[in-house]
Amino acid sequence: MSRRSPSRRSRLRLALAALIVLFVALTLALSRWVHVPRVDLTADGLYTLSPGTVQIVGTLHRPLRLTLYFSDHAARDLPQLRSYEQRVREMLQEMVARSSGKLRLQIVDPVPYSDDEASAEGNGLTPLSGGSNGERVFFGLVGTTLPADAAPGSAGGKTLSVPFFDPARETFLEYDIAKLLYELNETSKPKIGLISSLPIAGNPVIGEPAWTVLAQLQQLFSVQTIDPATLKHVDGSLKVLLLVHPKHLSDDAQYALDQYVLGGGHLVVFVDPDAELDNAPFVDASTGVTDDHNSDLPRLFKAWGVVYDDHKVVLDRSRALKIELGDTSFSHPAMLGLGAQELNRNDAVTASLQQVDVSSAGYFDLAQDATTRLIPLLQTSAEAHVVPVQRVLEANSDPSLLLRGYTPDNTRYVLAARLRGPFASAFPERTSPGHLAESAANAEVILVADTDLLSDRLWVDTQSFLGQPMLNAFASNGDFVANLVDNLSGSSALLSIRGRSTSQRPFTRVQALQSAADQKFLLKKQELERELAETRSRLDELQPARGSREGQASAEQKREIEQFLQRKLAISKELRDVQHQLNAEIDALGLKVKFINIVVMPALVTLFGLLYGWRRTRRSRRRRG
């Protein structure tokens, strides 16, 4: 008995199944090992990584595991957050694609009461309330370092996180992720220096604690205290140098600062026309010299093109803080609470801060011949007014005296700023070996015209909880300083990443149509109100005639009212016609966009492919011939 050979149909089925398996295998292999070049066609290059990010991703020393936590189910009724999650995920995937296998991305939905939810909380993510059915919404990133030969799912080492991706901070999304990668890649705490004539470090002998701002910095950085009296050179390994309330600095110390900045060092200068925490005596008994508790850096400021007067204080009655003096409450115009309108929302340092409190602060400006640029971080309102520091000192017992003769200057004074170079040396006469005469074009110094914002009294309370001290921050001063140092202590690649535009692009044509329609509605509304007023006036004129010609007056009133009602209906119809016309124009625009996206673009791509294939076929035939 002979075996029947497979039918033709069976062979075709087997061949089709084999082709499907081969196609899937090739697709997976190509997606895994072959890098397909991608083209970013967005107007602002939303999906193109900055050169600084590419450098950070390309120079990772060890593998990193990134875990993106997003509560998909809980956020099903939050379309804006879901759209932003896609934006974050696509940026992470682009970084992974450029990391040569050093980045491993995992996306987790931490459903309630799960191990994933516990892991998200344990890694410092901050949930958002208000999800579906009252669920909490997690949307953050956890980064963990891995051994070089780590297998998937293995335990990691150093862990850092982005607690929550706030859509309001989208312009700094790339910076925040790149900063996380940079810090994970670092093996030790960055070194920073501190020069201060204020008692920031406290006094252990008398039990005076260090200021909270220093304690916070010591958790994040390795802080080295420098004695200005012996300063002749600043170690180039210091990522940032904090100069707080510089007083009577020697030429050698100023020259050391000058060369540190020209060499690319990151300097943060805190000066003050009235440092209220300066505990030096007002009059030195040995020399008889009066100390006004002010500070300045005149030689360096002049070389950098900075104008600063250490005898002037900025008042701002619209931002005055409430203070208690005895049983009386005062608004102190020299103590300011700077809110959202006074903070630079386009800078990574101040974008997320809520309020920064300052006291008896000075201000900065640029000289007319300055070659540097001043980029404000903290400003006053236009209600500000400048007074001599002596007036502030005389009004200590009664701050209301500062409001006498107060006239707004209609100027927003700069209290803190980035100063960008190039900088020229303040010591051109020095010719020692290695002397730098000028900085690079991208050199930068941070200037702050107040030292009191560093003190605990302006931003943090210490309360006792179960016998342990607990800090309660009522302003963002500590975050402001930490953000400054954190921003400057990164690599030049990280500092080169600037804020970029958001993915939420407005429909400018639709907005223009809506604006035009609103204008039409406004005109119609004004016309209706005007006619209404005229009709009421006409009715009032008819009222006196009611006694003698009541029937006739009533008829006139009825005709007047009838005419008004008819006109009102006509205007209402015109309003509806304007709205219908607006909707029709928007619908037509939408149909046009859909037609272009669904029909025209695919047709163009298909036509291009056919032309390309035709040309290749034609060339092949010519070669054969």
From TrEMBL:
Residues 536-549 have a biased composition (Basic and acidic residues). It holds the Pfam family DUF7088. The keyword Transmembrane helix applies. Residues 536-557 are annotated as: Disordered. InterPro entries: ABC_transp_unknown, DUF7088. The chain crosses the membrane at residues 595-614. Coiled coil: none annotated. This is Gldg family protein. Residues 44-143 form the DUF7088 domain. Residues 189-483 form the ABC-type uncharacterised transport system domain. Keywords: Membrane, Transmembrane, Transmembrane helix. The keyword Transcription regulation does not apply.
